[in-house]
Amino acid sequence: SADQEFYKKISVPPPTFCWLCRAQRRMAWRNERFLFKRKSDSTGKDIFSAFAPDSPVIVYEKEVWLTDVWDPMDYGQEADFVKSFLEQFKELLHSVPLKNRNVVYDLNSEYVNNFTNPKNCYLVFNGQGAEDCMYANGLGLSKACIDVSHVSKSERCYESFWISSCRNVIFSSQCESSYDIAFCKDCVGVNNCFGCVGLRKKQYCIFNEQFTKEEYLQKIAEFNLGSHEALQAMRKRVVEFWLKFPNRYINGLQNTDVSGNYISHSRNVRESFLVRESENLRYCQYVQELPGSKDCYDYTAWGAGNEQIYECSACGLGTNNIKFCYNVQEESRDCEYSYMCEGSSNLFGCVGLRKKQYCILNKQYSKEEYFELVEKIKSHMDTVPYIDAKGRVYKYGEFFPAELSPSAYNETLAQENFPITKEQARESGFSWRDAAQRNYKITKPAVELPDGIKDVPDSVTTEIIGCEHGGTCNDQCTLAFRVLADELAFYRSMNLP
Description:
The structure is a single chain. The protein is of the alpha/beta class and 497 residues long. The chain is 19% helix and 32% strand. Strands 17, 18, 19, 20, 21, 22, 23, 24, 25, 26, 27, 28 and 29 form a 13-stranded mixed β-sheet that branches. Strands 5-6-7-8-9-11 form a six-stranded parallel β-sheet, with no helix packed on it. The longest helix has 17 residues, at 367-383. The chain starts with a helix and ends with a helix.
């Protein structure tokens, strides 16, 4: 089969877990958007980190982690052929300092994680090349977008999902190459459309009905979307209209030979979702950053020009031939079982290395010694495998066990895609972290906000607003929030309540 050919090509044994369990396991390592306040283990300063204060890892602020004031090679250890290799990796993971956030080339974006090239961004996660954006995930090469998810090459968009090459788009989904649209779904090459579904190269349409430009502008003004009450009524009307239309078997555009969902401009992509501009992928998720990836199996999150990635999560930026790794990036190649390494090659079981090669457990070897010892370790992983608390066996060829993850299950992508209760997590051997107590002093309940955006005063930016859900939604509610000055200016410019 194609799977067996791929495993043979990259010299790995076939997996012993099904592809969905493999995806869940990888996702249990990726804390997408939880940020914790904790002390830096280097300077003692308060920092925001993807690792909770009680996580068993050492954390430095990124600015210190990237300097030469410390050396990850100082933590190197000899391979022990009595203990399982993954147990030794766990010891190394808990001793080598980790950077607090996975952010590359950032500017004025302190509250961002899993992102490359963010500029003036706030609470955006998982993406690349964003500027002046807030409250977003899966965001790529976009500007001035707020409350969006999986948006690429777009500008001034709000409350939209899976759109690309769009401008001035609100409350829309699965649209491409469009501008000045609202409440549209599956539209391509349209402009000045409202509440439309499945249109191509149209303009001045409302609920799929054609109007003149003058008629269109008049009716749009009558909708009064600057009113919260009117907007909510319109959202209900739009959903009812959308439900009248059949859904295509897959959400995506310009694909050849693909299966899964939310795949665009790709070829030969199977059993995958949320993939852009890639080819020859299988069992992959969240591979969206551009340029696309190629020849990958069992790969979760990132992208940006990778090739031949297998059983990895959060690896990106031109990596090649990476196996069983987490957060190995920046043109690294030929690495296995490594974590948070950059610009390196021929690593096995390493943590926190930058621009190194021929290292095992953070210890330097010659080229000849390296390859000889790696083969010995692989054999050892089969004869003395890691066995988790539930009795599951991990030999060479499997990703890290979820129980070694420094993040709790309910903080990760796993909970988003494979939701379970705390009790189910415990039964399955996953860790769980209860939400911290939040004692916010609410100064403005959401129900007391003005209905119209024109009536919202500048002073709203000083309020602590109580979430309308009040924590009853079971969606990890933060209970309260603020409206930032730039955010308020955006709502006013877009006439949004």
